[in-house]
Structure formats: C-alpha cells, structure tokens
Design goal:
Length: 237
C-alpha cells in the first residue's frame, strides 16, 4: 500500500492518479515504460561502420581544405615574381605537416607503428629537397640520410619493444634513454665529419654520460621489486 505525496490518501497499486486530488502516482514497483511514454524517440545505436564513415568524411574534408593554403602560397609567389621561389619551401612544410599528422588519423590505433617508416621517408625526402635547393656543398648522403636512417631505426625498434611489452616499464625507459645518448654521439660525429673537418667530439659525451647514468638508475629500479611496486602505486604504471 502506498500513499499520495500531496494529500496522504491511501492508494491502490493500480491507481495512476490520486482519487482525491488527482496527483499522479509514482510507484517504484511499476515498470518505467508504463509510467509515461518517452518524450522523444531514442537515437539509433552508432555502429562501427557509422563511426568509420564519419571519420572518413571529416578527414577527407580536412584534406581538401589543406590544399587551400598551398594554392594561396603558389598564386602569391607566382603573381609577385613570376616563378615559384620561396613557395616551394612553404609547400614542403605543408607536405611534411600533412604527412606527419594525417596518416595516423587515417589508420587504426594498433597500426600507428606503421607510420614510422613513412616519417623516415618524408624526413629524408625533405632533406634531399633542401640540399638540392640551397646552394653549397652536398650534405644529404653523408649527413642527413644516415642521421634520418638511424633515428627511424631506433624509434621503430623502441616502438616494437613497447608495443609487445617485451620489457617492463623501467627497462623500456632505460632503453629510450640509452638510445638518446647513442643518437647524440652519432649526431655530433656526423657534424664533425661533414662540417668541422673531423674535429674531436665535445658536447655529445656529456649527453651520453647523462644518459648512461639515468639509464643505469632505471635499470636498478627495474631489478628491485619493492621500488617497482612503489612506482606502480604512485604513477599507475
């Protein structure tokens, strides 16, 4: 037995309104569908195909709009000087921006590591164009290409290690730190061989030593279960 919230009259379970004051009766035991009709129709469930279609539409529109600044740059440069001089640098920057940002958006999250070789190819192509356009000695094959190739290989290897969880978190961080130290030494070596007539290495040793110390500390953390447990609780890793 329930009571009216307005006047306190006893109500039967089947009464939709109070017989005395006509107040609507809300009975929690009655199914919600019997209380009142829905004020608006429920939306249809969004399927994976719908989400994919919306994503393709948005990215296609964004890709088309991305051509607008490229066209403006070409028209302005050609209209002022009658050729494409500085516009090619702007176009190269736009191509790099599109190539770095949009391919991961087109792909699924589990396939993002496939973009790493693409980033390497884009970076190498950009360096090749700059080497051809800027007057001076050639530095693409002796400096830019080896540097981009090593960086792409390191990032690809680290992505495989992290993606497949081959090591624990601290070991992964140590590998990244060691790789950064190695890359700094190789970078200064290439700079020395190409632009400084083979001078001795200087600043990269400090970066390598710092990376070695930090990586060693992370490996100690990785080997200590107590520290690993404290880090897991504090940083949710």
């Amino acid at each position: 037995m329930s009571y009216c919230v307005e006047c306190g009259v006893k109500l039967a379970d089947t009464e939709p309104n109070c017989p005395l004051c006509d107040t609507p009766v809300v009975n929690p035991r009655r199914p919600e569908a019997e209380l009142a009709d829905a004020p608006y129709p429920l939306p249809a469930p969004v399927t994976a195909a719908d989400r994919r279609s919306r994503k393709v539409s948005v990215l296609t529109l964004a890709s088309v709009l991305f051509l607008l600044p490229a066209a403006i740059v070409c028209m302005v440069n050609f209209g002022v000087s009658g050729n494409l001089s500085w516009a090619r640098y702007a176009l190269l920057g736009l191509i790099l921006a599109y190539g770095y940002v949009f391919p991961p958006l087109w792909m699924e999250r589990k396939k993002l590591r496939r973009c790493i070789p693409l980033y390497g190819i884009l970076s190498a192509a950009a360096c090749f164009c700059l080497n051809a356009w800027i007057p001076g000695p050639d530095w693409f094959f002796t400096f830019a290409l080896p540097l981009v190739a090593l960086l792409t290989a390191i990032i690809g290897l680290l992505a495989i290690i992290v993606r497949h969880a081959l090591w624990r978190v601290c070991a992964n961080a140590a590998a990244i730190v060691f790789a950064s130290g190695l890359f700094s030494v190789y970078t200064e070596f290439l700079i020395s061989q190409n632009f400084q007539n083979g001078g001795a290495l200087s600043w990269s040793w400090y970066a390598a030593a710092t990376a070695l110390i930090l990586g060693g500390i992370l490996l100690v953390f990785d080997r200590n279960p107590v520290i690993r447990q404290k880090l897991r609780r504090k940083f949710f890793i």
